[in-house]
Amino acid sequence: MKLLSLIRCIHVSVNSSRTIRPLQCRHFCADVAPRDAKPKRYKYPEVYDPYGPRPPPSEKIVQLAEKIAALPHAELKQIGPTLQFRLRHPKLQTISAGGLNMGQQTSASATKPEEKKAEKTAFDIKLEKFDAAAKIKVIKEVRTFTNLGLKEAKDLVEKAPVLLKQGVTKEEANDIIEKLKAAGGVAVME
Prior knowledge:
Keywords: Ribonucleoprotein, Ribosomal protein. This protein is α+β, with helices and mostly antiparallel strands. Helix content is about 35%, strand content about 15%. The protein starts with a helix and ends with a strand.
């Protein structure tokens, strides 16, 4: 059997150099892995704990847990912040969800009383339209308050109505609107 597989693996080429080279093939022998052997079954834990089994809590910890569980709801809410302060843990920062679609809001949030809206401090400038004869003047004005090149400013102005600048103060926004108005464009503050 082994001789037959050896003959299959070796190929003699009849060239002028008469080299012997093996073919690229593999033969699996039946004696490598017995077919009737059953695979081993390992018992895996339900939850993997990289630190190994933990010792049971002490009696003092069990009594403390029972006392905490017996507290009223109002006092339970105070435990977390108090421990956080006492152990000097950093306060968790809230993550802004601006721009994310959170799905439909529940009716409970609609019943809350509306809070006073803070006065807006940052404004956006939007170019509504411009006079076709004053297109070059409007492009030059757009270039003065943005960091755009001539082609980019021209493309931006031609897309009107378009947002020109975001997050500017009220005074700066009024100056830009007046300059655009003098050049022949109509801009609004949002």
